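Run: sequence + flavin-adenine dinucleotide -> complex structure.
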Amino acid sequence: MTFEFSDKADYQEYFGPAHNMVRRSVKEFVDKEIIPHVDEWEEMGEFPRELYKKAGDVGLLGIGYPEELGGTPGDIFFQIAAWEEIMRCGSGGVAAGVGSLNIALPPIIRHGTEEQKERYVKPVLCGEKIAALAITEPGGGSDVAGLQTTAERDGDDYVVNGSKTFITSGCRADQITCAVRTGGPGAQGISLLVIESNTPGYSVSEKLKKTGWWTSDTAQIFFNNCRVPFRNLIGEENQGFYGIMENFQAERLQLAVMANMTSQIAVEEAINYARRREAFGKPISGFQVIRHKIVDMATQVEVSREFTYRVAAKIDAGLNQIKEISMAKNFACSVSDKVTYDAVQIFGGYGFMRGYPVERLFRDNRVLSIGGGTTEIMKEIISKHIF
Ligand SMILES: Cc1cc2nc3c(=O)[nH]c(=O)nc-3n(C[C@H](O)[C@H](O)[C@H](O)COP(=O)(O)OP(=O)(O)OC[C@H]3O[C@@H](n4cnc5c(N)ncnc54)[C@H](O)[C@@H]3O)c2cc1C
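>> structure
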């Protein structure tokens, strides 16, 4: 089962020739700059910082962003094509690390001033600077409205105190889009600030050691009387919660796409392995139970991908898809949980060994139903739309 894209007219509902051109150029980049090194980076626990610059130079980071900020605008399927091809490297950590700008920049683009866009978007899209999004705190990630990092106004500055955790690209980030409490309790008291990592009072932990996503750096960030200029406020004071929720829609789409690609690669690996591995004198694909398992895996991936695309198309058309994107993320993650588990099973002992793609896919997959809102939080959102 391959995952081919064609330029035929009948397949242009989501991806036309222009999307496929972008897909091919991202594939070329991934084949040349990532795949030959990815196993080594995984073992080292990081990819070189210069990968951002290389990705920026070929325009990969700017896909879907405004031209005046150095991007190449286009509908959502240009980004989806790019994310899918990056996932082809088989490392969720590379995809998450390179892609942290996609959760950090949109609030600045939507609500930021021209000066903020100039200063905090352009250098990231060309790969000179690294951006991260910092919402989660050690005391809790799901309850965003309860966050406790404070930003108190003092003259022309905010004085920020508190900490954030599990921040993707947090160790290397030059800037974070950070959720802080500027007002009273609850959602009404939250704002978004851009905080530069060289600000006095800003410090970062060692890289956190994780089950998967080894190449992405994940950090805890501390603020100790960190003075951030008022001009770094994104949008209006105490309106940040809405910006965060708006941003989650795209993050959840990205995670659904990552889950679908994880499943896709796992199915392909399982098919190839089942064809060549022999047991009891014949390829294991000769056992009906293995074939049927793979058939179920392949079916679920197809269904999940098509649903994700449909929701993406509706988001692109400006429809509110809060419920549907939560469903798409949960469905894609339930499929990738099952498919990666079954792929490891089909590989037998080798599936448990480092160096086999399914082993990494299995580990990397686990976080997809936690990050960007857990399965349970997605269900809460869906239930609010149902009841
Ligand atoms: C590798 C990695 C990368 C990440 N990257 C980032 C990043 O770049 N930026 C960022 O801000 N965050 C990031 N996160 C954090 C992630 O978004 C949070 O881990 C997630 O939102 C859950 O928050 P929590 O871990 O505090 O769990 P908690 O909120 O403490 O939840 C614990 C458990 O309780 C359940 N639960 C909580 N509330 C409810 C409820 N109302 N109903 C039912 N069940 C509930 C949860 O589903 C979960 O199972 C990352 C996390 C990981 C692991």
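>> summary
Residues 132-136, 140-142, 166-168, 210, 213, 218, 367, 370-374, 376-377, 380 surround flavin-adenine dinucleotide (CB under 6 Å). The longest helix spans residues 240-276.
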